[in-house]
């Protein structure tokens, strides 16, 4: 596992190849946009019947990140559930699994646009979390400093020797880090999207997820 | 003999026309439950199909729909409507003819369902949609005949499977309906007859006089074809000369990109400003219609085109067909040549233009095959299950159904005749519940079984989504191209993957123009006319033809001759050169060449096993190479060879060709490669697991939509025996894998591998460098590239101290 450590707002953070973020100073693991229960929500609304395994796939990866970092605190950065009803409809098996992961550590659910209200689950529900120099919230705000957010599912693309590679990525500028989506059934928003451009500065870097974290200058990816 | 009604007879007589014997035959045998006509292009097939209908309708009043005409081309449906309306008006017949395609307005479509015309002209997809309405029984009541035009073009495709399933539905609704098929010349009429008839009933076949043999030759050029590449630019002066000497010339190309390049250069050389147009499936409808109209009006001397003009519309005055690039398939070549059938009794005239020296060999093999009347055919496969799943959904839209009734109906369709109950139940279960090992959707099933045993949609509102997804044609994600500015004229479409690689200022060719990429706006590529750079080559989707096995074998046999006096000198010299610097492939041996180029190591494997098997070989070999740390990056396959490139050289190919290792690799390989994911995506869309992307509805950069690859990986991991994965494997094996031919090749060569290591590209391998359809290998090689680029780029912008 090649984790990439980077300096941010006077502290050090670690980008995991899975798309999770670890803050060693506080033993804090942060993941964003799990979108648990997405297939259930689509089926409920009369869409197609997608393979109902995304919750298991996402929890498996979350469990691996927890085993790797042994965090005292886990922060889920919003859109943890595809909607509130999907959270309520979580099968017992998955509830128990979540409960097991939560045992012995602090667990914070930051609210997202998909899951704006508390759910009947263990853990603390918050609109945002301030801790030391950092602020954890779902959607990045203009002018914020030391902000850790998610929401946009950034992905970066680059063409190398005619090969087009596109992967979910972290975006890091001087003032903020935007996390990739951690959930299995999630798409991505191109780095070059005007919304993301407006949030990044000249020093910005994209950290591509994959077998290893690959840092690329924000200006060189699309 | 069934006589024409007097009014029709008189109309023919006043024009001095008489009907062809096969047209009379079709009239005489119009009572046959299934009737197939095989006639060459220009033989008046369509009229032969419609004569019995016109006779019926002229004789007496018929209420409602009498004849349903289905063509694979929208344009053909509207063309036939115009061709029928004129005589109907001139004879004053009380017959209403209308067409119905994706382009027909919603109001008109609604009215057609409430009050159908006597003759309705439509496409397989529109028909499938019609059968999905609850009022289908009313609309089709009284239907007497269904005519499937150009049925040969549907034979080996899922569109054909969908069509015959829809026809089985119609037959249940209208037990007295007669089936009529109209086909061009084919190798195996019986196979098409089986497709047309209600299984297991027989089908009568009318064979028209095939006409005289075509006059087909190679185009003589002063300049030799290039060593490699496609497109045939070198032949432009000779082609222009031919255009001048003929009234109207069709210039066929195998790919849209090649048609664009050729057209561009043709115009640069067109000093006399001969009116020449371009026509292919990625151009906007407006563009295509303009060209078609100009052609009908006799304003064009030539059209540069692709398979989009293979079928249908009778241009009348075409007196020469030029095929640029190897024809790949003798049957299609013969059909294309037929487009130059000025008069039925005259031989059609065609010229072949090989694009490079390998194609000279291929073209010669094709000429020999045409002379020998050796048309190539493919063995018909069992009906695909993804199409079946869609058919079940369509049936459910039309109202509650009994599963056994539906199964019996499906079994009347030839390719599905041996569908087992278990296979059908699998598909039904998939459609109803998702068919997952984890039963997650009990509450949200798509289909529910009622207490009386009938199946129906859980939520009737689902019909809308199901209808929007009808069809089996896979359009890869494309973006519209138009000129920048308000109301900019639409030009056509390019593949999303190509658009993603463009940066503002890049130029590319579309519709024969060089345009400059300005930016992406609301999923539309905006361009201007400022052409200040060498254009990139746009990638268009479009069918890629595979050379038939028969042709490949002919080529291999040609290589064995000591000399090639029939071939142009340059080509013979080229083969001699290949023999000198390396060697020529032999039937009982396997030739492998390895050489470096441009900081990569290449290996070329001349298996002559056909494109699909060579593609599979590429996948299996790169997997083995990955295990041997040769860091393969990708490969490309043609009908005769596979070219692999990577970061490390191949020293000993023998371990790669162990049949057992290859076969062991097949299963694990099947899991994770790009071809399987591509196959999965199209099958999943057809079967109704994934919604099609509807152009216009898809918003720019939506993070809510995610790649079908994710579904594939998830299923593979959590539910490896799921129906969709089984369908994907079946599809891949029939379409893209073709492992049996690899086994056959390896058995044939019997361990006789000739590995030639060289310091540069060989004459025979050169054409492969210009092949499209490269398959990337997502392995260690890619990670190395990415890591190197990261170091380089981060240092470049001074960010290395991250």
Which tags fit this structure?
heterodimer; A: 222 residues; alpha/beta; Purple Acid Phosphatase, chain A, domain 2; 16 strands; 19% helix; 31% strand; globular; B: 802 residues; Rossmann fold; seven-stranded parallel β-sheet; six-stranded parallel β-sheet; 26 strands
Provide a descriptive summary of the structure in words.
The complex is a heterodimer of chains A (222) and B (802). Chain A has five helices and 16 strands. With 222 residues, chain A is α/β, with parallel strands linked by helices. Chain A has one domain: Purple Acid Phosphatase, chain A, domain 2, CATH 3.60.21. In chain A, strands 8, 9, 10, 11, 12, 13, 14, 15 and 16 form a nine-stranded mixed β-sheet that branches. In chain A, strands 1-2-3-4-5-6-7 form a seven-stranded mixed β-sheet, with helices on one face. In chain A, a hairpin with a 2-residue loop joins β8 and β9. The longest helix of chain A has 16 residues. Helices cover 40% and strands 16% of the residues of chain B. Chain B has a seven-stranded parallel β-sheet, with helices on both faces. A six-stranded parallel β-sheet of chain B has the order 8-13-12-9-11-10, sandwiched between helices. The longest helix of chain B has 18 residues. With 802 residues, chain B is of the alpha/beta class. About 1% of the residues of chain B have low confidence. Chain B is globular. In chain B, a hairpin with a 2-residue loop joins β21 and β22. In chain B, α24 crosses α26. At the A-B interface, β1, α1, α2, β11 and β12 of A face α25 and α28 of B.
